Amino acid sequence: MGKFLLLGLDGATFEMLDPMLQTGRLPVLARLLGEGVRGPLASTVPPVTCPAWPTMYTGRNPGVHGFTSFRILNPGSLTSHTATLGDVPCPRIWTALNAAGVRTGMFNIPATYPAEPVDGFMVSGIPAPSGAPGAVQPAGLREEFARAFPEYDCNGSVEVSLFARRSKRKWIIETLRRNLLLRKDALDWMLQREPVDFLWVVLEAVDRLSHAAYVFLAPGSDLYDTPTGRKVRDWAMELLETQDEVIGWIIKQMGPDAPVMVVSDHGFAWTPKEFDLCGWLVANGFLVPPPGVSLRKRMRLAIREAVFRSAAGRRLWRGLAGLWRRKTGSLAQPYRLVPIDWQHSKTWPATPGEYGIRINSTRLRPEGIVSPSDYDQVADALVEGLGALKDPQSGEPVFETVARREKVYNGELADRAPDILIVPARHVVHRVGPTWKAQANPHPLRTASELHVLSNHDSTGIFAAVGGPFAGGTVDSARILDIMPTVLHAMGHAIPPELEGQVLTGAFTEDYLSSHPVRRVEGAGGEVAPPGDGEAYSAEEEEEITRRLKGLGYM
User: Fold this and answer.
1) pTM exceeding the 0.70 threshold for the entire prediction
2) 3-class DSSP state for residue 463?
3) Is residue 219 within 8 Å of residue 19, measured between CB atoms?
4) φ, ψ for residue 349 (rounded to 5)?
5) Is 180 a member of any domain?
6) Is residue 318 one of the residues assigned to a domain?
């Protein structure tokens, strides 16, 4: 087969896009989503950028590829490190295609730092240090790329909480537009030097826009049909028109005959209600705030919170923190910066981006208080308690998923994930507040009070494919796990037998399926390259990545 384009639209939903397609102002995307096959795409548990994209590019569940979140808890301690591509031990879609003689271009895919040697090129996506040479392969192009694009930022993110400030809304959307055009220029530069047969590009503008403003973009939300909602959608349409032009340009580079598959890693929902996770844990005896927090310490923590409310304060704090780490030589990031009573707390909340609860067990660290004999009892009590919660107004469950990690993941690296995985119901967001001032909350479900928490991830993304072997109609059971085997089959290549996903046969024409039976062949996944340059982050880089992830609400 000839060329193939896999287009990732981070965070895209049909709910938001379909009304905009009807305006006629997004002709390229309208063709991609309207002329071929399409359907919902089930994300991972949890539905987060990481582990979703690594699951897509490996065809394996997070318990096998190990990228359970952006940060990995270090065994036997309460420190963590930013995960890298070197933490993923299994083959990827590009290793399979390279083994089959296909040149691959991987551009802006999250969780691919440091870039690894490929037959073609790779430019890492979020998270990656600004200006890090390890984000570009081939290594021989790094210096030239840095000179050509001195402002290029693999993260390309903005602090979405700023959208609550009306004066910042237009600026945020314009910043997203500039980032998008810079991505296009950098991709053009790479394609001129390294032409490829398979190109995978991820564009993050929809995700960042949705984080900031989905409540204004989702039909049916409380703020959709308001003057502000209409104004925000006008600005959003301008951004999406630019994205449509970029997508059209990318398609042109791959040629008119190249099939195109469009995917997103998760969806979005407007979330008018929030769940106080810490308050519930305290009320049910799973979490104990630190005893006797002195007035001095309370003041210090309160000042820290106040400082972080302003951009200038955050820059000052980061500068002081960087000086301290350089002085002490400390590289590991504390897993939870806010204290709890470790001697009496059976659990503590994982970071917001992990969607879970960790049990303070002796399995995790020797100082834990939950013994192996008591572990099951604590885990089952959490699952039963959270799983039984109902919205008192609607009667609907508060959580879509509450499960022990071994019920969701399998594989040697599953223990990197929180002990209990939780995914809120579609219109609920869980909040992880400061544990040092957590109080028992008998009514943890409440109306969301801040604009930036009115938009949250949802478990349903998008799938569409047009051209080449693809048919029309709909596919209703697509999963992120199915993308890698489906792409390999569409390009006429064998599928590694260890892949957990299935070929989406309903997406193909009958003629193609009859002439191209699905083949699973040992060794078809290729070999995993050794970790590239930059697999370890410096203290300053860890601080930068942490700040970026906090700005998107992952920490």
Assistant:
1) yes
2) strand
3) yes
4) -75, 135
5) yes
6) yes
Alpha carbons 178 and 152: distance in angstroms, whole number: 11
Cβ 205 vs Cβ 176: under 8 Å = yes
Q: Please work out, in degrees rounded to the nearest 5, the angle formed at the alpha carbon of residue 11 by the alpha carbons of 8 and 15.
A: 110
Task: Report the domain count for the chain.
Answer: 3
C-alpha distances (whole Å) from 66 to each of 16, 54, 86, 143, 425 are 31, 9, 10, 31, 25
pLDDT at position 314 is 52
146 in the same domain as 52: yes
C-beta separation of 237 from 20 below 8 A:
yes
Q: Is residue 104 located within the same domain as residue 194?
A: yes
At residue 321, the pLDDT reads 54
For 252-277, b/e burial (b = at least 16 CB within 10 A) is: ebbeeebbbbbbbbbbbbbbbbbbbb
Rounded CA separation 494/515 (Å)? 14
pLDDT, tens digit (0-9, with 9 covering 90-100), for 39-56: 999 999 999 999 999 999
Which has the closest alpha carbon to 535: 262, 196, 134? 134
Neighbouring C-alpha atoms within 13 Å toward the C-beta of 10:
28
Distance CA(474)–CA(37), nearest Å, equals: 5
Q: Are residues 164 and 240 located together in one domain of the fold?
A: yes
Query: Which pLDDT score, from 0 to 100, does residue 323 have?
Result: 57
- Could you tell me the residue range of the domain that residue 309 belongs to? 294-336
Cα dihedral sign for 499, 501, 502, 507?
negative
Nearest Cα residue to 176 out of 207, 136, 216: 207
d(CA 56, CA 272): 30
For residue 259, the one-letter residue type is P
Q: What is the pLDDT of residues 279-306, one digit of tens each?
A: 999 999 999 988 765 555 556 656 655 6
Same domain, yes or no, for 184 and 321?
no
Q: Is 420 a member of any domain?
A: yes
Same-domain status, 97 and 232: yes
Residues of the chain with pLDDT under 50: 324-338, 532-534
Letter for the amino acid at 89?
P
Nearest Cα to Cα of residue 275 among 86, 82, 391, 430: 430
Pair (136, 239) in one structural domain: yes
